[in-house]
Design a protein that fits this description.
Elements lengths: L1 E6 L7 H20 L8 E7 L5 E3 L3 E3 L3 E2 L8 E4 L6 H7 L1 H14 L2 E4 L3 H6 L8 E2 L6 H7 L4 E2 L5 E4 L2 E4 L5 H13 L1 H11 L23 H12 L7 H7 L4 H12 L3 H19 L4 H7 L5 H12 L3 H8 L1 H5 L1
Parallel strand pairs: 1-2, 1-6, 2-5, 6-7, 7-11, 8-9
Antiparallel strand pairs: 3-4, 10-11
Helix pairs in contact: 1-6, 1-7, 6-7, 9-10, 11-13, 11-14
């Protein structure tokens, strides 16, 4: 029998990532036995805390660990559940989990999977350096700045790299759990779990859920000014040269400073602002895709559709049909 450790963090956590992990693996265990795929549970499951003290979340829910990290001598899979709030404080509160994960990985070659912002706790181990990682799109900039050695893949829901897994934000953690179920129990069990739990199977990216608000958590005021100009003049013809001139920088220096501050080149930033504006218009207006394209500053249909699919994960028409209230009611 394999062993699964579902971490129960101190402080504030996404309780659904704890309960969802427990429920889905229990569901997989039950199907596995009931359909003759095995004679006993494939995984023994424990909710693992730093202590046995019950953890209260959101003032409404309390989770009591079944074991502590000191009780676990060997585990095959660790699920790092989501943490929220002040991430610096949460990492400090739960740092004993970091040592636990490193020890289990080194001694037992344990696989480790982070859910949502649990990626921050996993990245603290150093085990993700040089590896790919997914996390909630709201925290991409903070993650890049804190863990420059990790290859953040912002559009993906699931990342897998030599037994280290991570998922995108919020309820996309369910897709990673299904992936882990399939890997361990087989596709038949995973498909059954997806149907019973009504989880969309094989969803791979989170682009359609991203809301681009601009990256302004930096101190370069000239670049912030350029960002604000782009955000209010996105429908006009914009050039990197003119933006550099406005900030009294050479084009080369402006691009360097812009990239350092925002993690995007100026051209990428313009594209993302325009596509975010297009998404909002497709969600709330009756404009055609062609009309939306023109109002956000594009006049080439192929370019617009290519960029929209890159940043939104869907074609403009697919996006409108999915998110426009009037279209959805048809």
């Amino acid at each position: 029998m394999k062993h699964l450790s579902i971490l129960v963090p101190k402080g504030t956590a996404i309780v659904d990532t704890i309960i969802g992990s427990l429920n889905l693996f229990q569901m997989a265990n039950n199907y596995y036995k009931r359909n003759g795929l095995g004679t006993e549970d494939l995984f023994e499951i424990d909710l693992v805390g730093i202590s046995m003290e019950p953890q209260a979340y959101s003032k409404f829910f309390s989770v009591t660990p079944t074991k502590t990290i000191d009780d676990i001598k060997k585990t095959d899979l660790i699920i790092v559940t989501g943490i929220v709030g002040d991430l610096e404080k949460q990492i400090e509160l739960n740092y004993e989990f970091v040592d636990f994960m490193k020890e289990q990985r080194v001694k037992n070659n344990s696989e480790i999977a982070s859910l949502c912002r649990g990626a921050f706790l996993l990245a603290e181990t150093g085990l993700m350096n040089g590896k790919s990682c997914a996390t909630h799109w709201l925290t991409h900039d903070k993650f890049k700045n804190r863990y420059p050695g990790v290859n953040l893949i912002p559009d993906k829901i699931i990342s897998e790299d030599n037994g280290i897994y991570s998922s995108g934000g919020a309820y996309s953690f369910l897709n990673l759990l299904l992936h882990l179920v399939e890997k361990n129990y087989g596709r038949e069990t995973a498909i059954w779990c997806s149907k019973v739990a009504e989880i969309d199977f094989d969803r791979l990216d989170q682009n359609q859920f991203v809301i681009f608000n601009g990256q302004k958590e930096h101190s370069d005021q000239e670049i912030i000014g350029a960002q604000e100009y782009i955000e209010t003049h996105y429908s006009e013809k914009l050039s990197v040269e003119s933006l550099a001139e406005q900030t009294a920088n050479s084009t080369r220096n402006f691009i360097r400073r812009f990239k350092k501050a925002t993690n995007n080149t100026p051209i990428e930033y313009i594209q993302r602002v325009r596509i975010e504006a297009a998404k909002k218009k497709l969600e709330s207006s009756t404009l055609t895709v062609q009309q939306v394209m023109i109002t956000v500053g594009y006049n080439d249909d192929k370019t617009f559709r290519t960029l929209f699919k890159r940043y939104a994960g869907l074609t403009p028409l697919e996006y409108r049909n999915k998110y426009n209230r009037e279209m959805a009611m048809v």
